[in-house]
Amino acid sequence: MAVSPTGTQPRVVLGVGGGIAAYKACDLLRRFTESGHDVTVTPTAAALKFVGAPTWAALSGKPVSASVWDDVHQVPHVRIGQTADLVVVAPATADLLAKAAHGLADDLLTTTLLTARCPVVFAPAMHTEMWEHPATQANVATLRARGALVIEPAEGRLTGKDTGKGRLPEPGEIFAVCVDVLARGSAASHQDLAGRRVVVSAGGTREHLDPVRFLGNRSSGLQGYALARAAVARGAEVTLVAANVALPDPAGVKVVRVETTAELHAEVVAAASGADAVVMAAAPADFRPAGVSGAKIKKAEDGSAPSIELVQNADILHEISHDRSRPDAVIVGFAAETGDATGTVLELATAKLARKGCDLLVVNDVSGGAVFGSSDNEAVILAADGEVTDVPRGSKTTVAHVIWDHVARRFGA
Question: Which residues bind CTP (predicted)?
Answer without folding.
Answer: 286, 296, 334, 352, 356
